[in-house]
Design a protein that fits this description.
The structure is a homodimer of 345-residue chains. Chain A has 345 residues and is an alpha/beta fold. Chain A has 3 domains: 44 residues, 434 Repressor (Amino-terminal Domain) (Orthogonal Bundle); 134 residues, Response regulator (Rossmann fold); 130 residues, Rossmann fold (3-Layer(aba) Sandwich). Chain A contains 12 helices and 12 strands. In chain A, the strands form 2 sheets. In chain A, strands 2-1-3-4-5-11 form a 6-stranded parallel β-sheet, covered by helices on one side. A 6-stranded mixed β-sheet of chain A has the order 7-6-8-9-10-12, sandwiched between helices. In chain A, α1 packs across α2, α5 packs parallel to α12 and α8 runs parallel beside α9. Chains A and B meet through α4, β1, α5, β2 and α6 of A and α4, β1, α5, β2 and α6 of B. Chain A binds a DNA duplex (16 and 16 nucleotides) through α2 and α4.
Amino acid sequence: MTKNSKPTIYEVARKAGVSRQTVSRVINNRPDVAPATRQRIMKIIDELDYHPSAIARSLSQQRSYNFGLLTAGLEYMGPSTTLSGIAKKSEELNYGLYLKELPSFNANNIHPLLEWFLARQVDGIIWAVPEIGANRDWIKDSIEDIRVPIIFLTSAKREKISIVTIDNYFGARQATQHLLDQGRKQIGHISGPMDWWESRQRLKGWQDALREAGIEPEERMVAEGNWSSKSGKQAFEKLQITFPEMDAVFSGNDQMALSILQTACTENIKVPGDLAVVGFDGLPESAYFSPALTTIFQNTIELGCTAVRTLARMVEERDIEPSREPVYITIKPDLIIRRSSTPVE
Amino acid sequence: MTKNSKPTIYEVARKAGVSRQTVSRVINNRPDVAPATRQRIMKIIDELDYHPSAIARSLSQQRSYNFGLLTAGLEYMGPSTTLSGIAKKSEELNYGLYLKELPSFNANNIHPLLEWFLARQVDGIIWAVPEIGANRDWIKDSIEDIRVPIIFLTSAKREKISIVTIDNYFGARQATQHLLDQGRKQIGHISGPMDWWESRQRLKGWQDALREAGIEPEERMVAEGNWSSKSGKQAFEKLQITFPEMDAVFSGNDQMALSILQTACTENIKVPGDLAVVGFDGLPESAYFSPALTTIFQNTIELGCTAVRTLARMVEERDIEPSREPVYITIKPDLIIRRSSTPVE
DNA sequence: GTGAAAGCGCTAACAT
DNA sequence: ATGTTAGCGCTTTCAC
């Protein structure tokens, strides 16, 4: 070993006068090493500032203790709490994380990406790309080829794949029901882009809640946005024309709700007096909108944690019982009631 | 090779009737292979669906073509645009990315983290943890030990380390100067936490701009927040007491500015009539606050891209010229003028 | 243009 | 409790 190169297991073994295997046992905390030997080896490891090569280990064990995380649209993702949950939980369970971002939501060529992960011997894959258009169609053709467990976030239920998702339908029903409970009858909806699965779920929740209350949802009561504040403004202006009697609106996310509040403010529409508003997401700032926004809080940290926890379990169980049933876990979001939807005293 | 295990370079070589080295040359696009041989081998690679093991490659090349990215407080990081820039640029330059998140901003035990990256043979490290308190003190003791290039984001200038950062001081001066240009004289400041280097830079920019205008900044004109909307509200309320003549406020970020606007709205303070407000960050939503918020836009995508581009260059140059001068790159933010600070017509 | 030998740093399986 | 052998899948170096 020269001065500049890091020591290997071999140097440690030589200095300690043992075989590499014994050193290996020590660094892997195996029980079958004599206490004295262990002490001696540990001392030498310390002196040499030896650190085992994870690469070599991955090669010989044929696994890396890494997960592959695939995302898309990170820059739009609001506070990246899902990511944070994933990162924290992975760390806790002693897995490393490879991060990849798709260049666009509708990536067509999935295979190179999967292969990139597989070439690095990841133990599992987290698919954190929203379900949009046909961007899940590859699954049915390729899911069998993937030799590691894979978990999907934010996804419609499907055969043979494991999913962890927020219950968007439930959240939307809750939001709409809350507005009905406030005595509102003319409840509009600003949806996200309709090619997003999440948007469709939220739309459906709004529709079903209305129907259950004996109100038939009509086309003119809905306007489509693209999640941005800007699009929310346009959608709201459209609703004002197609649905002038509107006395409440359920917005597909908080950012679009923000521009409803803003438009209302400049046009002297009283919120909640003339118009009650409910958002979706539960951004921390939503409590500081004017007025404070009633919203559906989705716990994305928990979403991330659950995904990783589940994936880790899949990895471990796989050793014992190869092909288990896929899981389908939904996380219920919570209604947070604030000023924007509550009666004026 | 059994049916279930993936083919190795050896299987390809055997099927093609060549040695493994020849296959290696093909998969690495080396020129010294006969065209016919190359064709034949490529065909077999395709048939076998062979994919080289990045792990084995890393081991034998002693490098991984991965970067290590260390972050902290992902969940508060607003839209994770820096991350997005980093991910996109890494992908573009053909580097993989390990993502780690510190459990807290003031992590004390840095060495295990560094070793984790080094054990995986990363080619370079991106330190995307904000500079807070003494959380950079480890650098002077350990920077020499790190055997790979490392680049710091958002950091004060230092000897011997490479840095890419937004010019916070410049941005704050710009913001304050803009308010002065509008004829405001009583300009308060809501700062971020004072143990953050960024906060101190912004404070300093505000101070220097005032001084240059012949106004002496006083303690009572500043209130400290913690970046959250909630803290911004409290800070603003404090300023209303300590600095009642205030006719403008420069907020350390947009989220705190939001709650200034909100408080002003409920207390019937006219913005910008009675109070001009400028934020910092340039969140997309800030255009939809009421009124639309004047702010300092920091291009964090570019920040991330620049960091990766620089790091990649450091990696490549290292082969040629071992110890180059460290770089110090600042990115100038831009003033975006909107309703919240412009004169009422 | 191609191949043989040696090695990257570690661990699994089987001795002893 | 410890050592030996034989890989893991690829690249580097040198020979031809």
